[in-house]
């Protein structure tokens, strides 16, 4: 292990330990502050356990739906463009995805809403998934492309079919990179899900928007801190999962 | 009205918005580059310090931009101040990380040689280490700029300057004749700006990377 990797690992370990502590302190502190304040009727309608839980739940559901969509699209497309018959398509697909990534998330969300006139969960989930697609797509392609060709040859040599080589050699070896991409996508999704409130997709962005529009800083801050806490928590869970889910031989 | 007519007709408003968008992103990137490189230089020799700097800045990047903006509104009000603070914070991670990676990647034989011919610490840093690390630092700055292009659009929610204004105004006028054109002009404008600025970075790289390590 080089000194550089050792440092990166050390930074990871610091976040692994520090992040959950920071989340608990931050969210706990702000909730205690918000609930002990003198609240007017608008604030009481927004800052109560039921409403906060529902918005957090909506936010999580939106993020999970986005992640499922990303996995269902990005991994098959990533695998397809690394097959021999479609190899020419890999740079094209990655190029389109990279240019697409330059589009602002809020623009994609608003345009999707204006074009389809949908509202709610799917109106938020589809454009956010489109926006969070790139990390998983790129890492799937790179992960499979960087598998040692000698291993693929060896698999073919002992009589595996193309499908078996993909399933038992290429994909398992690409899993660590795909998981890293998935973690990035998930964090992007949780963050972008705060914008879901603009198209009535619910979530914690709703509290931020309400607090801002009705000039209730307590509501705004509570929503924002919950969103920050959730993002840090999901990122932390991703880091833990990344350590636990990779194939044993590669750890 | 189709998009093209719309752009031609509103050109006198879209152009200043695009200019403001680009200038906000570029100025904030410059502030973040100065702060980020300084931070990187301050910590790169200490493993614990660089781990802490990387961990902190990557935690900032995890924070949803809409939430950070929301938190800044009660403190800093609307308009330019929350926009600048948010943009600078988000730009830090790629720059700090790449500065640390670039500086620690410099071969210690080279710095020893520089010391050996009589350079002091500062000269070794400015004449040798930073120049060798510059391609990595420049990549970090480039990544930050691309990131800020999109985040600056969200800053329009807090009355920040730029093309995000068109997107939010399109959302507010959903159903009216030019709503889609507005959102489309704002979104595509940002994509075009991002690609243009990325091109500028390729040029800057050609001009500023030391001749000895250019490929």
TrEMBL record, chain A:
Protein name, entry field: Putative ABC transporter permease
CDD domains xref list: TM_PBP2 (cd06261)
DNA-binding as UniProt keyword: no
Protein species of origin: Actinokineospora spheciospongiae
Localization terms from the record: Cell membrane; Membrane
Chain ranges of the ABC transmembrane type-1 domain: 56-238
CC per GO annotation: plasma membrane
Pfam families recorded: BPD_transp_1
Mode of membrane association: Multi-pass membrane protein
Transmembrane segments: 60-81, 88-114, 120-137, 177-199, 219-241
Major subcellular site: membrane
Biological-process GO terms, alphabetical: glycine betaine transport; transmembrane transport
InterPro entries tied to this protein: ABC_transp_perm/SBD (IPR051204), MetI-like (IPR000515), MetI-like_sf (IPR035906)
Similarity comment: Belongs to the binding-protein-dependent transport system permease family.
Keywords: Membrane, Transmembrane, Transmembrane helix, Transport
UniProtKB/TrEMBL annotation, chain B:
Transmembrane segments: 20-44, 51-75, 87-111, 132-158, 183-204
Gene Ontology cellular-component annotations: plasma membrane
The keyword Metal-binding belongs to this UniProt entry's keyword annotation: no
Membrane topology: Multi-pass membrane protein
A biological-process GO annotation: transmembrane transport
Keywords: Membrane, Transmembrane, Transmembrane helix, Transport
Ranges of residues in domain ABC transmembrane type-1: 18-201
Claim: Transmembrane is one of the keywords in the record: yes
Coarse class of the protein's main subcellular location: membrane
Pfam families: BPD_transp_1
Sequence similarity: Belongs to the binding-protein-dependent transport system permease family.
Record's protein name: ABC quaternary amine transporter, permease component
Organism (species): Actinokineospora spheciospongiae
